[in-house]
Design brief:
The chain has 253 residues and is an alpha+beta fold. Helices cover 50% and strands 13% of the residues. The protein has a three-stranded antiparallel beta sheet, with no helix packed on it. Helix 1 packs antiparallel against helix 2. The radius of gyration is 73 Å and the shape is rod-shaped.
Length: 253
């Protein structure tokens, strides 16, 4: 508040009109000056307060900017971390996929190798199913099939031709029966039926020979004296049909 006590005291002490007017003027001027000083101070205070408020606002803005920048930095760091995590996860996934693919390839290769290694045993097992005990195996190789497929095999039918079993034929009505021969000798009962007729011709007609006829056809002349004799060698006939040889094996176990 303005202090004009001095000017007020001067008005109270003034005796003459001029002094009174002068005192009043001085008091009013002092009051006005004091008011002006107070107004300047208040303006300065208000200005200072406004400046302080603006500074505070600027500080708050700067703080907000700093906070925003920090948030942005934190967000960027979070994105970087997430990106790094994603990169690591992608790398690990790629490594895992490659390892799984390699493992699968190795497993497939092992299975393929095992299949190849087991192929002979598989083939042998199949062949033993195809040729159970009692079956006959034909081959142009002398190798016993037991060394190829397993099982027990014996040479079978050596020098003989297989013939199917026939229940209605006594010669072939069971398994393992044998018979037959490469050659045969002809007996009289095997000769075809035939007739020789001798006619004695009158002596002198054909000398001492008679006509020889088979049934009604004359085939020549023979001496009236007729004799017979056995053949020279009695060689058996070859009844072997055309053939080709092979090895035959019978599975017994």
């Amino acid at each position: 508040m303005a202090n004009i006590d001095k000017e007020l005291n001067a008005i109270m002490d003034a005796v003459y009109g001029e002094e009174v007017r002068g005192s009043i003027h001085d008091a009013l001027k002092a009051g006005n000056d004091e008011i002006n000083r107070y107004g300047l101070q208040e303006s300065a205070r208000v200005a200072a307060e406004q400046a302080r408020a603006q500074a505070e606002s600027a500080r708050a803005t700067a703080e907000n900017a700093r906070v925003g920048a920090e948030s942005s930095r934190e967000a960027a760091e979070l994105l970087r971390q997430q990106g790094e995590t994603s990169r690591q996860q992608a790398t690990q996934a790629a490594v895992t996929a490659a390892e799984n693919a390699a493992t699968a390839a190795n497993t497939a290769a092992d299975r393929a190798n095992a299949a190849v290694d087991g192929l002979p045993d598989l083939c042998a097992s199949v062949m033993l199913q195809v040729y159970p005990v009692g079956c006959v195996y034909l081959s142009t190789s002398e190798q016993n099939p037991g060394t190829l497929f397993g099982g027990t095999w014996i040479a079978w039918g050596q020098g003989r031709v297989p013939i199917g079993v026939s229940e209605t034929d006594a010669d072939f009505n069971g398994e393992g029966k044998t018979g037959g021969a490469k050659t045969i000798s002809i007996a009289n009962k095997n000769l075809p039926a035939h007739i020789f007729t001798l006619y004695n011709a009158p002596e002198g007609t054909h000398g001492n020979y008679s006509e020889v006829k088979t049934n009604t056809s004359m085939v020549g002349y023979v001496a009236t004296q007729v004799s017979t004799r056995a053949g020279d060698a009695n060689v058996p006939l070859n009844v072997m049909p055309p053939y080709v040889t092979c090895y035959m094996w019978k599975r017994t176990a």
